[in-house]
Structure formats: C-alpha cells, structure tokens
Amino acid sequence: MCRHIAYLGPRTALGRVFSDPEHSLVVQSWRPRRQRHGTVNADGFGVGWYAEGDPAPARYRRAGPIWGDLTFADLARVVRAEAALAAVRDATLAGAEGEAAAAPFTAGPWLFSHNGAVRGWPLSVAGLAAELPPSRLLSLPAATDSALVWALVLHRLQRGDDLGTALAEPVREVAGAAPGSRLNLLLTDGTSIAATAWGDSLWYLADPPAGRVVVASEPYDDDTRWCEVPDRTLLTAHRTGVVLTPLKETVQ
Fold first, then answer.
1. Which of 3, 21, 122, 158 is packed most tightly, with the most Cβ within 10 A?
2. pLDDT, tens digit, for every residue of 147-166?
3. Active site residue: 1, 2, 194, 229, which one?
C-alpha cells in the first residue's frame, strides 16, 4: 500500500502540510496509524505543486524513503503553493521500477496517485490494457499496476471527462476485472480534488471559511474536523465544500 495527500487552500509552505504535523506524511512513511496493508512506505515518494500563474505542476520524486531525503526537507521548508499532492510508496512488487513508479504521475494540469494494488497484476487487467490506444501503453511511465490505472484515468481525462468520472469509471472497470483490488485514487488539477475510497482508508478536512480542504489516506493530526470517507465512495472537493457519492451510483 501507500499513503497520499492533496491540499487546496491559501498559499502555504509544503512542509506545513506534508512534514510538520505530528502525524505527517513523512511520519506515515514509517509509522502509519490507519494503513490496513503493509507498515513501511519506503519504496519511493513524490510531491507535485502548482506555481502561481502556471497550470502545469512541478514535481519532485525519488526512489528512496522520504525521511532520508534532505533536499525534500529543504524544498518543503521554502516552496509555497495553493495546491499540491504528495505520496509515499509501498511497492506492490518490492523495489519495482524505482523513481519512475513513484507518485504523483502527471500530464498536463493533473497530478495523480494510487494507494492500493491490482489483484492478479498484470494478467487480470490485460483486457483493459488492450482497450487503450497503443501509444498510451507505450508511454506508460513504469510497468506497474499504478501506472496502468493512471493510463486508464488519463485516457478519460483527455477525452473530456470530469475528475470524478475519470476516477470512478476506471475503479469500476478494474474492480470488475480484478476483484479484491484496492483502488484508493487521488487526483487534482490545481483547482479541485477527486478521490476514491476502495479498500483502504480515506479522510478529508474541510474548512470552507478559510477556503481550505485536505484529502488524505489518514489524518495528519488530531483535529476533530477530520471526517472518514466510507468505503466504495467517490469524493469530489473544492475549497468551499466536499461531495461524497457512493460508487454504486452512476456518476454524471
């Protein structure tokens, strides 16, 4: 499994969200409190953020554990953004693919992360892969289950689907092809967030008066405003609110 987190809100240092809190993503990389599968997320990490006036996010990734990267500590201290997404990785296949497999994946204005595993990978989803354009398969960033899920999501985004639909439909497809898969997905375009709870924990912290929302695998502190998202649910969020939709329902 993995841990991931996305932030929308007032401009802030990345460290205030990803590394400073008592139970931050950095701490979750070696001592998660609510992770149901695996205990250490040391197979790489990444962070993506949006600079003012630029719709394409910047990204920093490494193959090793986040706690040992002093450059990230420096970046988190000085880089400020109004939107960001970060993840720490516990590889489905230990050590597979290195930095190229570390989330967030990116294309255009989007940042994406997958917390989970596709059961029976890769044979279970060979049929879904075959439905993608060959160029999409040839440009996979890594030969991993998460990269294929990202390709399915990106295919929908680039044909015009909204963030929620672009996540919900691949989750249904992969879950149908590979029952028992864990498919907690997280996606942002810098102005909104979409996420799915499917097989592991997902939480959100909404503060509409401040124009701030955080969506994460687990809370990074003990603020009583954190809310758990029920399993089999699609979350869509803006700075002013959060909507939860059961995934058994059709997403418009």
1. 3
2. 999 999 999 999 999 999 99
3. 2
